[in-house]
Design a protein that fits this description.
It is a single chain. By secondary structure, the chain is an alpha/beta fold. The protein has one domain: LigB-like (Protocatechuate 4,5-dioxygenase, Chain B). A hairpin with a 3-residue loop joins strand 8 and strand 9. The radius of gyration is 17 Å and the shape is globular. It is 30% helix and 19% strand. The N and C termini lie close together (7 Å). The protein has a six-stranded mixed sheet with strand order 5-2-6-1-10-7, with helices on both faces. A two-stranded parallel ribbon has the order 3-4. A two-stranded antiparallel ribbon has the order 8-9. Helix 1 packs across helix 4 and helix 5 runs parallel beside helix 9. It contains nine helices and ten strands.
Length: 254
């Protein structure tokens, strides 16, 4: 499993330290049978699973260079896997989706891991109606995927406060004190496999409230950590803050 700080959509076409981190990860990972990605950029009521044969590439952003909109990631879908996820007994409602596709939280990262578009990709939405604890519980229900050769990716950013970004410092490492403190605390919870603590960070003080003003970029981490075993190794990469209030910290487990 992996949680990946996806950051700026321009990472799809730029060569920078973060992209190098994505590419290095792709070289280290065995090729999976399929990928299930939980992206910060697809929020719904009830959980939805993409079930089309050929998911479209979604450009869910604006104001970027035309070259970014010319990028395409035509990875196949996996309707059979999507159906299995939906029909597995669960206390949380799940539905097949034939409209969405792969948003930039998914394709701008996965294209660097598997550039040949030869791994089926299924995207899973974030249910707006669930608490953090319930998202972690739902994640644990996906444990069967680990034994099927499926790579589970959470894609977001553990510190993500766009309202406080210093836009002049996006090209250099820089984090406000509260952002660095929150990043460090979350890493400690990851290292200790403290899923309960990770599911209650909004109750952990001012730095967490600033780091996670809204939950959508943080929640994908719970899908990675909800499946982590206590004895599994972890590896942090791209552990850099930019713009003061964004962390690109990513982690691989297992």
């Amino acid at each position: 499993m992996a949680f990946i700080g996806h950051g700026n959509p321009m990472n799809a076409i730029e060569n920078n330290v973060f992209v190098e981190g994505f590419k290095t990860l792709g070289k280290c990972l065995p090729k999976p049978q399929a990928i299930v990605c939980v992206s910060a950029h697809w929020e719904t009521y009830g959980t939805r699973i993409t079930a089309m044969e050929s998911p479209r590439t979604i450009y869910d952003f604006g104001g970027f260079p035309e070259a970014l909109y010319q990028e395409n990631y035509p990875a196949p879908g996996d309707p059979s896997l999507a159906n299995e996820i939906v029909t597995t007994p669960s206390k949380f409602p799940k539905e097949l989706d034939y409209q969405w596709g792969l948003d930039h939280g998914t394709w701008t990262v996965v294209k660097h891991l598997y550039p040949n578009c030869d791994v089926p990709v299924v995207q899973m939405s974030l249910d707006r109606g669930l608490s953090m604890e319930q998202h972690a519980e739902l994640a644990r229900e996906l444990d069967f995927l680990r034994y099927r050769g499926v790579l589970i990716i959470g894609s977001g950013n553990i510190v993500h406060n766009l309202r406080m970004v210093d836009w002049n410092k996006l090209r250099e490492p820089f984090g406000y004190d509260w952002a660095e403190a929150a990043n460090s605390k979350i890493k400690d919870l990851i290292i200790s496999r403290d899923l309960k603590g990770l599911s209650r960070v909004e109750r952990s003080g001012m730095e967490m409230n600033l780091a996670i003003p809204t939950a959508e970029h943080y929640l994908p981490l719970l899908y990675t950590m909800g499946l982590a075993k206590s004895d599994e190794q972890h590896y942090f990469f791209n552990d850099i803050s930019i713009g003061g209030s964004l962390s690109m910290c990513s982690v691989v487990l297992g």
